[in-house]
Specification:
The structure is a single chain. The chain is built from 7 helices and 10 strands. It is α+β, with helices and mostly antiparallel strands. Strands 1, 2, 3, 4, 5, 6, 7, 8, 9 and 10 form a 10-stranded antiparallel beta sheet that branches. Strand 7 and strand 8 form a beta hairpin. 26% of the residues are buried.
Length: 235
């Protein structure tokens, strides 16, 4: 049973008081940390859209997370607290709700996501979407290419901290433009969002990025930045 990182994105209800939102989030983070197999939880608003909250929970295994979800006495109140803070109006035919999913990072835990308790104040999250039936051989090759890209970028990019994590989603049905997908996720450490944006404007980046854009069967990419607050389990 391999460890996984759960990825959650929530649009936050704009009509709810900030204190109520913070109280619900803190209570649910505490609930997660009390569960067997939950190692830590990280949270951040998304730099590009502060109405969105991202949570990243490290679990000993997918089975540990599923055991929590199957425990109605704990999971029921967890869902009840979370429900009111979600802006359900953000979902629709062109933007369906995306359930939580899990990433099996090659290096665990992904310390690049640790934010206030780590060496990377900002983490870039790059999501690369592929068909759900992408083969193991292609996945391994693409992960190797992405690692090579990040290594070459880190040799020249100012503000890149050197912390990176790469991994594929366990799930094969992560929605991208309404279609199920398998996702290669790269978490890349930066000193700031501005440092990343400046690096993207360099000739070195423009020469390197085709390594990613030309990956076989790539359906598309998404990108955002987070600055996490990290909560560790005391178990």
């Amino acid at each position: 049973m391999a460890p996984v990182t759960e990825f959650v994105q929530l649009p936050i209800n704009p009509d709810l008081a900030p204190e109520a939102i913070a109280s619900a989030i803190q209570a649910n983070i505490a609930t997660l940390l009390a569960q067997p197999g939950c190692q830590r939880v990280r949270s951040s608003r998304v730099h590009e859209d502060s109405s969105k909250l991202r949570l990243f929970a490290d679990w000993d295994s997918l089975e540990a997370h599923r055991a929590f979800a199957a425990n109605a006495s704990v999971y029921g109140p967890f869902q009840q607290r979370m429900g009111p803070i979600i802006d359900t109006s953000a979902f629709g035919p062109s933007n369906p709700r995306r359930p939580p999913y899990h990433v099996a990072f090659a290096t665990f835990p992904p310390s690049v996501l640790n934010g206030d308790k780590g060496s990377s104040p900002v983490a870039e999250l790059l999501f690369m979407y592929f068909p759900p039936d992408v083969s193991d051989a292609v996945m391994a090759g693409h992960e190797g290419t992405a690692r090579d890209f990040l290594g070459k970028l880190g040799a020249t990019a100012k503000g890149m901290t050197g912390e990176v994590a790469l991994g594929w989603t366990v799930e094969k049905d992560v929605l991208f433009k309404g279609e199920p997908s398998r996702v290669l996720v790269a978490a890349i450490g930066w000193t700031s969002v501005d440092a990343h944006m400046k690096a993207r404007d360099t000739e070195e980046f423009k020469q390197l990025i085709p390594m990613i854009r030309n990956l076989e069967s790539l359906k598309g990419m998404e990108l955002c930045h987070v600055s996490n607050t990290t909560f560790e389990s005391s178990k």
